[in-house]
Protein backbone atom coordinates (compact mmCIF):
# COMPACT_ATOMS: atom_id res chain seq x y z
CA UNK A 1 0.00 0.00 0.00
CA UNK A 2 1.05 3.56 -0.69
CA UNK A 3 0.07 6.54 1.46
CA UNK A 4 -0.35 9.59 -0.71
CA UNK A 5 0.14 13.16 0.35
CA UNK A 6 -1.75 16.38 -0.22
CA UNK A 7 -0.41 19.92 -0.45
CA UNK A 8 -0.14 21.73 2.87
CA UNK A 9 0.49 18.56 4.86
CA UNK A 10 -3.15 17.51 4.83
CA UNK A 11 -3.98 13.86 5.35
CA UNK A 12 -3.95 11.80 2.18
CA UNK A 13 -5.41 8.43 1.28
CA UNK A 14 -4.20 4.90 0.72
CA UNK A 15 -3.84 3.27 -2.67
CA UNK A 16 -2.23 0.00 -3.78
CA UNK A 17 1.34 0.55 -4.99
CA UNK A 18 0.56 -1.19 -8.29
CA UNK A 19 -2.37 1.17 -8.90
CA UNK A 20 -0.30 4.22 -7.98
CA UNK A 21 2.61 3.23 -10.22
CA UNK A 22 0.32 2.55 -13.18
CA UNK A 23 -1.46 5.87 -12.75
CA UNK A 24 1.72 7.91 -12.34
CA UNK A 25 3.07 6.43 -15.57
CA UNK A 26 -0.14 7.22 -17.48
CA UNK A 27 -0.46 10.75 -16.06
CA UNK A 28 3.10 11.68 -17.00
CA UNK A 29 2.89 9.98 -20.42
CA UNK A 30 -0.34 11.82 -21.23
CA UNK A 31 1.10 15.18 -20.18
CA UNK A 32 4.12 14.55 -22.40
CA UNK A 33 2.10 13.28 -25.37
CA UNK A 34 -0.91 15.62 -25.36
CA UNK A 35 0.42 18.89 -23.94
CA UNK A 36 -0.12 22.23 -25.65
CA UNK A 37 2.59 24.82 -26.30
CA UNK A 38 2.58 25.76 -22.59
CA UNK A 39 3.20 22.12 -21.62
CA UNK A 40 -0.26 21.64 -20.14
CA UNK A 41 -3.11 19.24 -20.80
CA UNK A 42 -6.72 19.35 -19.60
CA UNK A 43 -7.27 17.13 -16.57
CA UNK A 44 -10.22 15.50 -18.35
CA UNK A 45 -7.89 14.32 -21.14
CA UNK A 46 -5.75 12.61 -18.49
CA UNK A 47 -8.80 11.01 -16.89
CA UNK A 48 -10.17 9.83 -20.24
CA UNK A 49 -6.85 8.42 -21.38
CA UNK A 50 -6.26 6.62 -18.06
CA UNK A 51 -9.73 5.11 -18.35
CA UNK A 52 -9.02 3.99 -21.91
CA UNK A 53 -5.64 2.48 -21.05
CA UNK A 54 -6.35 0.99 -17.62
CA UNK A 55 -10.13 0.56 -17.40
CA UNK A 56 -9.90 -3.20 -17.92
CA UNK A 57 -6.62 -3.71 -16.04
CA UNK A 58 -6.78 -6.27 -13.25
CA UNK A 59 -5.40 -3.71 -10.77
CA UNK A 60 -8.69 -1.79 -11.10
CA UNK A 61 -11.44 -4.39 -10.67
CA UNK A 62 -14.14 -1.71 -10.39
CA UNK A 63 -13.17 -0.40 -13.81
CA UNK A 64 -13.78 3.28 -13.04
CA UNK A 65 -10.65 5.37 -12.64
CA UNK A 66 -11.73 9.02 -12.33
CA UNK A 67 -11.17 9.33 -8.58
CA UNK A 68 -7.97 7.28 -8.67
CA UNK A 69 -6.54 9.64 -11.31
CA UNK A 70 -7.56 12.75 -9.38
CA UNK A 71 -6.13 11.44 -6.09
CA UNK A 72 -2.85 10.48 -7.75
CA UNK A 73 -2.65 13.85 -9.52
CA UNK A 74 -3.05 15.66 -6.19
CA UNK A 75 -0.27 13.51 -4.71
CA UNK A 76 2.00 14.42 -7.64
CA UNK A 77 1.19 18.08 -7.02
CA UNK A 78 2.18 17.74 -3.38
CA UNK A 79 5.46 16.11 -4.43
CA UNK A 80 6.21 18.94 -6.89
CA UNK A 81 6.08 16.71 -9.99
CA UNK A 82 3.04 18.35 -11.63
CA UNK A 83 1.09 21.54 -11.08
CA UNK A 84 -2.30 22.98 -11.91
CA UNK A 85 -2.19 25.80 -14.40
CA UNK A 86 -3.36 28.88 -12.48
CA UNK A 87 -6.78 30.24 -13.43
CA UNK A 88 -7.42 27.48 -15.97
CA UNK A 89 -10.98 26.37 -16.43
CA UNK A 90 -11.44 23.57 -17.06
CA UNK A 91 -8.46 22.52 -14.97
CA UNK A 92 -5.18 21.98 -16.80
CA UNK A 93 -2.08 20.19 -15.52
CA UNK A 94 1.60 20.35 -16.49
CA UNK A 95 4.91 18.97 -15.30
CA UNK A 96 7.02 21.09 -12.97
CA UNK A 97 10.47 21.74 -14.38
CA UNK A 98 11.88 18.49 -15.67
CA UNK A 99 9.24 16.44 -13.84
CA UNK A 100 11.75 15.00 -11.39
TrEMBL record:
* Provenance organism: Microbacterium enclense
Source domain of life is Bacteria
Under InterPro entries, the record lists: DUF6958 (IPR054233)
- Protein's name in the database: Uncharacterized protein
Amino acid sequence: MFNSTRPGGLDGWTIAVEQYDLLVAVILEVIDAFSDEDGSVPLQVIVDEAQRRLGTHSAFPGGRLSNYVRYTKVDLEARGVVERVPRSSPQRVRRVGDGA
